[in-house]
Amino acid sequence: MSLDNKNIRQMKLRTLLYIGIIGSVVTSTFSCTKLKEEFRGELEEGTSAIDPGALLVTAYNSLNTPYQQEQRWVMQEISTDAAMAPTRGGDWDDNGMHRAIHLHTWNADNGYMNNTFVSLGTAVYNAGVVVRSNPNAQQAAEARFIRALAMFDLLDLYGVVPFRQGPSLEDFKIAPDVLQPQAAIDFMVKELNEILSSLPANGPRAAYVANRNAARTLLMKIYLNKGAFLTRQTPTFAAEDMNKVVTLAKEITASGAYTVSAKGKYFDNFAPDNDEKSTENIYTLFNKNGERGGNVDRTWNTVAHYNLNPGGWNGWCTLSDYYDKFGATDERRGIYYDYPADTTSNRTKKFQRQNVGFFAGQQYNWSTNKPLMARNPSTAPLSFTREVTIRTSGATLETAGIRPMKYAFDYAVTGQRNNDWVVFRYSDVLLMQAEAVLRGGTGSAAEALDLVNKIRTNRGVTNFTTLTLDNLLDERARELYWEGWRRQDLIRFGKFLLAWQEKAADPDPKTLIYPIPSQQIAVNPNLKQNPGY
Question: pTM for the full model?
Answer without folding.
Answer: 0.91
